[in-house]
Amino acid sequence: MKWRGVEVHCLFTGKQYVFHNNFWGVLAVADRDETNEKAFTVWYGNENLNGCSLGGDVCALLAERFIKKSENRYISREISFERKREDLRKWYIESKSLPF
Question: Residue 5: helix, strand or coil by DSSP?
Answer without folding.
Answer: coil
